[in-house]
Amino acid sequence: MVKHFWEGFRKRSIVWQVTVVFSLITLIPSIAITISYFHIIQNSILEESQKNLKQYLKKMSSNMSANINIANYTFKDLNFSQEFTYYLDPGNLLSNREKNHYINSIQVELLNIHNMYPNKFSSILIYSKNKQISQIGGWSYPLESLYKTDYYHEITDNSGDIIYGNIRIYDNAYGNLAKYPNLENEKEQVLPVYNKIYNISTGEFIGMVELDISLKRLIDIESLATENPSITYMLFNDKNKLLYSNNKIDPKDCSSLSFPGNSGLSNEVLNHTNYMVAYDRDAETGLMRVVVINEKEVYSTSKGIKLALVLIAVICLICIILLTSLTAHIMFRRLKDMMKMISQIESGKFDVRIETCGFKEISSIAESFNHMAKTLQTTIQSMIEREKAQKEAELYALQVQINPHFLYNTLDSMRMKCEIDSNYQMANSIQILGSLLHYSLNWESKSVPLKEEMQNVRNYIQIMRMRFRNKFQYEIECEPGCMENLVPKFILQPLVENCFSHAFSDMNPPWNILVKAVGNENRLIIKIIDNGIGIEPCRLAQINEFLNGDQPNIGNRKSRHSIGIANVRQRIELLCKEGSKLTISSELGRGTQITIIIILEEKVD
After folding, report:
1. How far is CA 195 from CA 77, 163, 167, 359, in A?
2. pTM for the whole thing?
């Protein structure tokens, strides 16, 4: 796209180009000033929004602290008026009069709490070890009923008198002393606050008072939401898990939120939307108070200012373009004639020359173009001559290639001489060498029947037998039905050669080589197995990455081993159907197995 734009720009007149360039140069400072002014306004709005966000967070914190203080005052009033240390002690035997007094006193106190703090607590419960008063309907329960709850440990593990428990769903199994309508049917989260009661003499844990505060009432969301409906108030636990939000926010969208430190400001993304976030952690409960606002709401007031600035910028741009265009027409009027001559040079007529006349600047431009045209003409002529010489050299090289037939005749003469001298073993070896040479030089067909490739491997192994004699054993197995299958030429001998040059190079005999070909449905599978030294895991990984196409070459070093594998892999990819491949498996000290899988053409009945 940039290239296309640049080509279009170059084809325009010089007046148009100068107009565009100077307009851009003049416009850049104007745009920079406009953007800077807009950023100043935007930063001012941002600072004001952050200040307001902190105020909303402060109100939320104030509401929460006030409600927690109410819970603490309620505990103090209950402890002061009810003598829990006596009545909850299992060691005290209570008379009927004492029981009735205790029940009536508690009920009166609960009624006073309800009237003083209406709709403040979801439930007020008393747990006692004294079984004489532990089971009173609606508000008093035995302490042992908490033993099997999953939150009992947070009570016993804390040595304090007043404990702020973990947020949990309101448990309506214990009744509803606060008399809230339909609360038993709500799955509302509450903050449990416990006041542990101890025996004054022994220090034994004998009972507990529990106040459950709804999270909505903990932060008094009704009073907060009326001030600014666009503000979202949230509560998180100490593991940054969302517990409550006054707006519908998926907890999964909050999983990426982080709160460095105990308080601060940040910008976060929730459900693909940018938000400004203010947060602080409550020291007593450990809950993280969070206030967020959509950045679109923050910057909505700046839309009008942005529109006005854009209009001013557009007007300035039009004025700048008109003034620049007029100035350019006056300055470059005489260049139009020169542009016609330059167009002829661009079309390939490099023998065209521009007259050097007029102003000094115009004459310098004309001289530069004349020099350019002459240089291009000389360069292109030189390239044509070099290309012609290269073609002649390639033709000459083809003409002087050595015809290999004289090598066959020479080897045949040597074989006959050996037979005359009764050296039949040498004659046989020379004949095999001739067959190898003929097979390697005859490339009329890129694919051959498998039986010819197998015979070439036998010939190569017979030659290697002259060198290593009885140091190795070999087997060549091929299913009869596979013999006529076409395979890329010269894919087996390089791999067998690797056995001698690498697998057996640092290993004492005996050596074993197995070449096996089997057919499997429409696949031909050829395996070359040796009992050599194997391949190091690092090197094997590099080879497999190359075979899988993950790397352009095998490691950083080249060898006959890697070149042979690379050539075989390349011929398989070029000549065989898709799905054909070469794989290598090896175990250090145990040997190597090379597997060639060739997808065969489907036979037509």
Report:
1. 12, 7, 16, 99
2. 0.47
